[in-house]
Amino acid sequence: MTAFGSLFSREPAPLLGIDISSTTLKLVELGRGRNGGYALLHCAIEPLDKGWIAEGNIEKFDEVAEALRRLVRKAGTKTKNVALALPGSAVITRKVSLPAGLTEDELEVQVEAEAAQLIPFPLSEVALDFCVIGPSATAPGYNEVLVAASRKEKVSDRQGLAEAAGLNPVIMDVESYASRLAARRAIERLPNQGNNLLVALFEIGSQSTGLQVIRNDEMIYERDQPVGGAALTQVIARQYGISLEEAEQKKKTGNGLPADYPQTVLQPFLDTLGQELGRALQFFFTSTPHNKVDHILLSGGAASLPGVAEAVMTQTGFATSVLNPFEGMTLPPNLPAARLAMEATSYLVATGLALRRFMP
To answer: Is the pLDDT score of 11 beyond 60?
Structure first.
């Protein structure tokens, strides 16, 4: 069986979580603080030019590899082991029920047989992995097994990218799994430690926003909504006659924009964003027995915009908060608070990958 990198392996040594998106590379390294809690050791973001990565595919390998080298230098870390992730669109995951008590070899044979029925391309082209979740709730004597598969070239592209930057890829995860792992800490701060709550996790990207509805660490629904932070950048550039690059920088810092920006540009965008997120939730309600969520968590670059949680709560009617994946962690003394406030919401996936270091 071809190892998947591995989706479910655990790596106790120092580890970098590196998130590869269409517009940026993001790095997080975590350790333990003196109090035994998590400590943020390093974090950094490196921008990518448009088209270098498209729909999860690395189109400009050499340029992205050089950007990854810059990212590691910028972060100031010496760690070489890395955890990477594939977009959900590149991975097929299925839960199957298999007899309990199988040996590892017998389990591999059964998983391959199940995978052959689930996967629409030859197993010889597939990187395959599995994880035993636990006893089946509906089939006594059986275990639930999570099977994950991706085309080998998708895995090898990211492995090769890390190696070209002088890094050692030891874990290949799925972005949505990494997001949920990082979000777990925020969910546990909700009432009743988040138990049995329906939590809508929105990741607001540049071009689109991903929704995962989570209950007790399980994703029960997911959807992409065609709204993202790039739309605000474009409006700023058009409204004030500046370049997209300058508009993006001013959007992030909130500095240097005219006095009418909050009401003329920002608030209409936030209202539209809230409406689109509400529309995504309506799709969830109409396709499931549910008609509400208990809490909304916002992440991604645009989640750092002032007033975003209030706007989403107004448009949806559900309690909403911004997810800072570093909340409660010991922070490095040399990390500027202004930079952290501007960037923290972008590090959800990278933080989830970095947390793999501490998984048993």
So the answer is: no
Rg over CA atoms, the chain: 21
Handedness of CA 243, 252, 82, 132 (dihedral sign): negative
Expressed in percent and rounded to 5, the helix, strand and coil fractions of the chain are 40, 30, 30
Q: How far apart are the first and last CA of the chain?
A: 23
10 Å CB burial of residue 337 (0-12, 13-18, 19+) is exposed
Which domains are present in the chain?
16-89+153-190+324-358 (3.30.420.40), 91-152 (3.30.1490.300), 224-320 (3.30.420.40)
Nearest residue to 143 via CA among 156, 125, 131? 131
pLDDT at residue 3 above 50? no
pLDDT at 12: 62
Please list, in sequence order, all residues whose beta carbon lies within 8 angstroms of the beta carbon of residue 112, skipping any fewer than 6 positions away.
1, 123, 128
Instruction: Specify the pLDDT at position 1.
Output: 45
